Amino acid sequence: IKKRQQDVVRFLEANRIGFEEVDITMSEEKRQWMYKNIPEERQPAQGNPLPPQIFNDDQYCGDYDCFFEAKESNTVFSFLGLKPSLASKVNIAITDLYDSSCDLQLEFTLREAERSTCSC
């Protein structure tokens, strides 16, 4: 999971997409928000969704597999609901680097009014 986190973070940094880390292990409210805002069809059969889970504000974009597919097909900005030239932020929930039982949310909020619909 650490490798997946680093992959997403490197992409965001390389493309100058701002983000703010929020540790959801310290906030049950934020953790529940993340779980609640993942569409039912994207929920695992058992347990909670594994990070990273990616959001653009309240809009769910997808998980790491969706991000990776978008990266491979050069459609990540569309996946994130962004236009390539916009300076923006997105939400990502990821597992803590040191303890796989902890969750960490990288929180990003879109700065520009225009955005596309993200879909996985």
Automatic annotation (TrEMBL):
Belongs to the SH3BGR family. One of its GO terms (molecular function) is SH3 domain binding. One of its GO terms (cellular component) is nuclear membrane. Coiled coil: none annotated. Keywords: Nucleus, SH3-binding. InterPro entries: Glut_rich_SH3-bd, SH3BGR, Thioredoxin-like_sf. It comes from the Eukaryota. Pfam families: SH3BGR (PF04908). Gene3D superfamilies: Glutaredoxin. SUPFAM superfamilies: Thioredoxin-like. This is SH3 domain binding glutamate rich protein like 2. The keyword Magnesium does not apply. It is found in: Nucleus.
